[in-house]
Design goal:
The chain is built from eight helices and six strands; from the N terminus they run αβαβαβαβααβαβα. It is an alpha/beta fold.
Length: 276
């Protein structure tokens, strides 16, 4: 666990004031969701992942690094899962306004960077939009939206190619990671769903995709009766342990790179001559 002084909400106002003014002051805001994750995983799966992985990442950084975390944003944008009981979804407008409202206040305090550390795939694009909107309003604040699983190398060592392609929700990866972090929260039922009988993922018409170059705005009920999109039957705590370490290592490297940089660049004053 990160030390208490890493947690924004546990700091005093003078500590926050001093932290904000440190060169390269960086805040990480973890985002999850409360949504169905099949019959075997908790509604808070994405929130658990964002919270636990971020704590582990921060605990491995240097004590004097100017980086802190905000409280977990558990509720997210999950309309695609509304067909299953337990899913709670904020509207897109509400989440956009939330990021802008909090972000502008952080910028006014003097913080230089805000990382939106998101573990829910269904709000990747929305948080990217929120980041651009916030950066436009507060140019002094670098805003970096990221997704927990994006860019992590070596996942093919532990996950099958079909799962890497079509295991979009509550499949082998998420089930294995939860078995590593909180095995007591994982149920015994392990469905295979959203997959054709030949093992290929259920997919929209030729030339279109669930994600990627030509994505469809799919609903989980289009693909699955259980809420699972993928195959969680081969999940294991051993795979989860490997995934956990890969995620921690990846994000520690990313955060160290950010802390070692001078990003964001100095924003020129509107109307100033070139070179100013």
């Amino acid at each position: 666990m990160p030390r208490p002084q890493r947690r924004f909400e546990l700091m005093s106002w003078p500590e926050v004031s001093q932290a904000a003014l440190r060169p390269g002051s960086t805040l990480i805001w973890p985002f999850g969701a409360v949504e169905q994750h099949g019959p075997h995983l908790p509604l808070a799966t994405d929130a658990v992942f964002a919270d636990r992985i971020l704590d582990a990442v921060l605990s491995g950084l240097n004590d004097n690094d100017p980086i802190w975390r905000l409280p977990l944003q558990s509720l997210g944008f999950s309309p695609e899962h509304a067909g299953f009981h337990g899913t709670l979804s904020l509207s897109a407008d509400l989440l956009l306004n939330l990021v802008e409202s909090v972000g502008t206040q952080l910028a006014s305090l003097g913080f230089r960077r805000l990382v939106l550390f998101n573990a829910h795939g269904g709000q990747i694009a929305l948080l990217q939009t929120a980041a651009r909107q916030l950066r436009s309003r507060s140019p002094s604040l670098a805003v970096l939206p990221c997704f927990l699983w994006s860019g992590v190398e070596g996942l093919d060592q532990w996950l099958s190619s079909s799962e890497l392609q079509g295991g979009l929700h509550a499949g082998q990866a998420e089930t294995s990671l939860m078995l590593s972090l909180h095995p007591e929260l994982v149920g015994e039922i392990r469905p295979i769903d959203g997959i054709h009988c030949d093992g290929s993922p259920a997919s929209p018409p030729t030339g279109w995709s669930l994600e990627g170059a030509a994505p469809c705005a799919w609903l989980t009920t289009d693909l699955s009766s259980s809420g699972v999109i993928g195959d969680c039957s081969a999940a294991s705590a051993e795979i989860g342990d490997s995934l956990e370490q890969a995620l921690i290592s990846h994000w520690q490297q990313r955060f160290r790179s950010l802390l070692d940089s001078d990003w964001p660049p100095v924003t020129p004053v509107a109307g100033a001559p070139d070179g100013c």
